[in-house]
Amino acid sequence: GNSVTQMEGPVTLSEEAFLTINCTYTATGYPSLFWYVQYPGEGLQLLLKATKADDKGSNKGFEATYRKETTSFHLEKGSVQVSDSAVYFCALSERGGSNYKLTFGKGTLLTVNP
Amino acid sequence: DTAVSQTPKYLVTQMGNDKSIKCEQNLGHDTMYWYKQDSKKFLKIMFSYNNKELIINETVPNRFSPKSPDKAHLNLHINSLELGDSAVYFCASSQGYGGGYFGPGTRLLVL
Description:
The complex is a heterodimer.
Chain A: E1 3-6, E2 11-14, E3 19-21, E4 23-26, E5 32-38, E6 44-50, E7 56-59, E8 62-65, E9 75-77, E10 86-96, E11 99-104, E12 108-113
Chain B: E1 4-7, E2 10-13, E3 19-25, E4 31-37, E5 43-50, E6 53-57, E7 64-70, E8 73-78, E9 87-94, E10 101-102, E11 106-110
Parallel strand pairs in B: 2-11
Antiparallel strand pairs in B: 1-3, 3-8, 4-5, 4-9, 5-6, 7-8, 9-10, 9-11
């Protein structure tokens, strides 16, 4: 079946450091790809998405490019802030019957220190 | 205005009890979901409904019964609660592609 593998954390960075969180996927067909963020004690928020190869999703300074040739969707940010501390989930969307469903990676905890 | 809301936010109960979690979305989406997040933060889909019809049931024990009275609501009823049911349950809605809006979660603790 389809799966998502993302780098294990925790990741600890200093403020203004460069962030990369790796994500690779296994899928039949061409899924849509997503990054979600979960702040402590809260639900999931959609951070960005890409629906086809070579698409770049971006939001709040975060970017990720859908790379079909390497089956990857790595999350990057040029300069992290303390407020970016959260758990980040990579996910793909696949069909389940007539619906779509999300398959998630295990999440990467990011801590940004001042 | 909250897009996807869930009640209650916290639920503490004894083993063997029956409990329900309610979810409502005001986005006009056709599709709603229940996801379970375990203690290691791993998220897995449980159910998906499309316009009140059950579409996805991911090998969830039949003690869990979702009900969708209309396309804006998807409730989750759990019978005979077990310790292993302790988790955070998220409701979500979407319009295509599977990605969408998540509720704030219901933190269930079974004692």
